[in-house]
Design goal:
Elements lengths: L3 H8 L3 H8 L9 H13 L5 H13 L2 E6 L3 H5 L2 H17 L2 E7 L14 E5 L4 H7 L6 E4 L9 E5 L1 H14 L5 E6 L2 E2 L9 E2 L3 H13 L7 E4 L3 H12 L7 E4 L2 H13 L9 E6 L12 E4 L2 H16 L7 E4 L2 E3 L10
Parallel strand pairs: 1-2, 1-3, 3-4, 4-5, 5-13, 6-9, 6-10, 10-11, 11-12
Antiparallel strand pairs: 7-8, 12-14
Helix pairs in contact: 1-2, 1-3, 6-12, 8-9, 10-11
Length: about 350
């Protein structure tokens, strides 16, 4: 693609002169012969001003038909700030670029999904089996998976740095003097779109790195690890089970803030002081976290950025990038009163 420098070289003038001529700068003192020569060379080289190139790119983007496939139903998404924030990031970035999301598909619905090969690209949010997705959308080089549990070598992926997040939590609690540290989290599955197949049990990364880190430190105790569904009730029931132990943990890392809300209720009901008798750290940093009693120390998952990054990766694929890219976003530990210290 021709540039102003190419035209200047051919015309034997400076790039600044070419720029001013092409922009019809009336204050420029240049001969009519030079003006004609510059416009003639620009036409021969098929030069298009940056403004026109930008408009052309925006027009091309506006014609892209993007699909968004999520596992959760709309009702479940409303109650799960983690995934709704990822979706918001996708939508905001598409809106900024003038791209339309032409299809929003739900894997966890009663309706059977039909193939959607006509799309220009697809963003998949959540752990959905990649083979099932491929059966419905055949352009594998135009699929971006967000927050998938498995390593998907041939696809673009966006996920959080769970190992970094867990290390920061454990280091914080250890610095506060805790050796008996519990974990409450949910179960992880690779969901099947094929209704004839069962979901596949996966390895939940927060629990995996929690057990790995505490094992390395020599302080891991299996009885302090509780699994339930990803909900406030799951956190509530799990914490009640922890409180029934003869020796209970003095701190607890909880895999989601909604679960932490339930866990805090159980602690309040049993008269356990937070953080004096048990320190609590959550995960997500949803809006309510700062307004709990006490305010919740938590890992801020930059989920909106995950959605934005997925759009960017997909556009690069549409524009021709061949190699798969795997993007991992770091998290931020937000220290509040529930862990017992406002300073890390």
């Amino acid at each position: 693609m021709a540039t102003i420098k190419d035209i200047a070289l051919e015309a034997g003038v400076s790039a600044a002169t070419v720029s001013r001529v092409l922009n019809n700068d009336a204050t420029l003192a240049v001969s009519e012969e030079t003006r004609v020569r510059i416009f003639s060379i620009a036409e021969q080289l098929q030069y298009k001003p940056a403004r026109l190139r930008r408009l052309k790119k925006e027009e091309e983007l506006s014609r892209q038909q993007i699909g968004l496939l999520m596992w959760l139903t709309l009702e479940d998404e409303y109650s799960d700030p983690y995934f709704s924030s990822i979706r918001r990031g996708v939508e905001l970035r598409c809106e900024e670029l003038g791209i339309s999301i032409s299809k929003v598909l739900r894997g966890n619905s009663r309706a059977e999904l039909q193939p959607f090969h006509e799309l220009d690209g697809l963003i998949v949010v959540g752990s959905i089996d990649d083979c099932d997705v491929g059966a419905l959308y055949e352009r594998s080089n135009r699929i971006v998976f967000v927050n998938h549990s498995n390593e998907l070598d041939e696809f673009d992926t966006v996920k959080l740095h769970f190992e970094q997040a867990t290390h920061a939590v454990i280091a914080h609690l250890r610095q506060l003097g805790h050796d008996r540290i519990g974990y409450i989290g949910g179960n992880d599955y690779i969901h099947r779109l094929n209704r004839q197949e069962e979901d596949i049990a996966g390895s939940e990364p927060r629990r995996f790195y929690f057990e790995k880190e505490l094992g390395r430190l020599g302080i891991y105790e299996e009885r302090f690890v509780m699994q339930a569904d990803w909900s406030s009730n799951g956190g509530y029931e799990s914490m009640k089970r922890l409180l029934q132990l003869d020796t209970r943990p003095t701190a607890c890392f909880i895999g989601s803030d909604p679960m932490a809300v339930g866990a805090l209720r159980a602690l309040h009901e049993h008269g356990v002081k937070v953080p004096q008798e048990m320190a609590i750290v959550g995960f997500d940093d949803i809006e309510i976290s700062a307004f709990l009693t006490p305010p919740l120390t938590t890992v801020r998952a930059h989920t909106e950025h995950m959605g934005r990054a997925a759009v960017q990766l997909l556009l690069e694929r549409i524009e021709g990038r061949e190699a798969a890219v795997h993007m991992t976003l770091n998290t931020t530990l937000v220290v509040r009163e529930s862990s017992g210290s406002t300073v890390l």
